[in-house]
Amino acid sequence: MGIAEIAEYAGMSRQGISNMRSRDDSFPAPAAELKSGPVFLESEIRSYFEPGFAPIPPTAVTSYSSERYTPTEFDPLDKVNLIGSVVSTLFAGPALPLAQFEPFNGSGVYCLYYSGDDELYAPIAAGDSSRPIYVGTALAHARAGSGMVSASSSQALTRRLSVHAKSIETVQLHDAVDNRHRLFLHDFSFRCLIVDEMWARPAEEWILKRSAPIWNSVVPGLGSHDPGPRGRSARRAPWDELHPGRARSVAQESGHTIDILEARVKEHFAREFESGIEP
Q1: What is the number of other CB atoms lying within 10 angstroms of the CB of residue 156?
Q2: Which of 106, 223, 109 minimizes the C-alpha distance to 163?
Q3: Tens digit of pLDDT for each residue in 43-100?
Q4: Stated pTM of the model
Q5: Calpha distance 37→111 (Å, rounded)
Q6: Whether the Cβ atoms of residue 254 and residue 233 lie closer than 8 Å to each other
């Protein structure tokens, strides 16, 4: 199988498969390098994307490799496989408009996606589920003496998504001359998965490591809380610097210039995407 066939099989873009290869050491090694590109054994690709798939060991050495195939044991209860299944289920869910979602019960992990026209975020605006602009968890915490709280017994996800929607809408309404990167709420969607905290946090870490969402890594601050009176002299978060509008940041000192943040974003995407974006 070539990159194009793998992309079609996995329901992803070729760029997404190439990025996955560069970030995940467990991605199968190519069986051969041809002029048209690398080719892979179908059985190994299926095992990678379908952890429950058990390929039949070949009875003879294939033309692609001089080494005999050695089957390995697959443990579906291995922590890495379990976390991978959580992330896969999250990515396979529907992308819902952030501006129109109805309140619901549930806590767990979520991703925000951007599909607007700002060229700064163009590399992730194509709708690839593995390329969120932001990832986070919204967890239900038990009150003292109330015992355990199930993942479906609170509105933690609804509350968190509502806060993010309000922040983005505030930027949208901030009609200032210096607002180079104005955000519009209708350009955002989200995916979420109601899941216990013991799986939500590892899933978030998995996505942070492999997808490196830009608002978590280079432009953090969307999920920051109001610093309150004691924190009013704190440095302004990169997110508020790049997307002005929230009242909390007005009295804070500027710690970054827009030009520097733009350069960092472009450098980040240049590293993350093999197609390369000029920094």
Answers
A1: 23
A2: 223
A3: 888 888 876 544 444 444 444 555 566 777 777 777 788 999 999 999 999 999 999 9
A4: 0.70
A5: 32
A6: no
